[in-house]
Design goal:
Length: 112
């Protein structure tokens, strides 16, 4: 039993060391802003960026999900982001006269 525990421990240390040596590649989104309070007919612009950790240029499609998604307009739907670089975009949030009370969510998405 002790031998099995010793082998499992050694195997887990091996996988942790292996995972620390592998690069993490992908894309991420940075947005300047956080929660905003509802105002009827609010019309506000936001700036954001896609960071590309890949070793190749990527083309991403921007999107929105959540209850407030219909009120978002992007400056562009497709964004070219250079390898190991950033691609900037803006979006507009144009809220209606009223929305359902409570917490309403908006997620900005980027798909390679």
């Amino acid at each position: 039993m002790a031998s099995l525990i010793g082998r499992l421990f050694a195997l887990s240390v091996f996988f942790m060391a292996l995972s620390n040596s592998l690069p993490v590649l992908g894309i991420g989104i940075g947005i300047f802003g956080d929660e905003i309070n509802f105002e009827p007919n609010l019309n506000r612009n936001f700036e954001a960026f896609i960071i590309n950790n890949e070793v190749r240029d990527v083309k991403v499609e921007l999107g929105a999900e959540g209850g407030l998604a219909p009120y978002i307009t992007f400056s562009e739907k497709i964004l070219d982001v250079p390898a190991a670089g950033k691609g900037w975009f803006s979006f507009n949030l144009n809220l209606p006269e009223k929305i359902n009370p409570g917490r309403n969510r908006l997620d900005i998405t980027a798909v390679d």
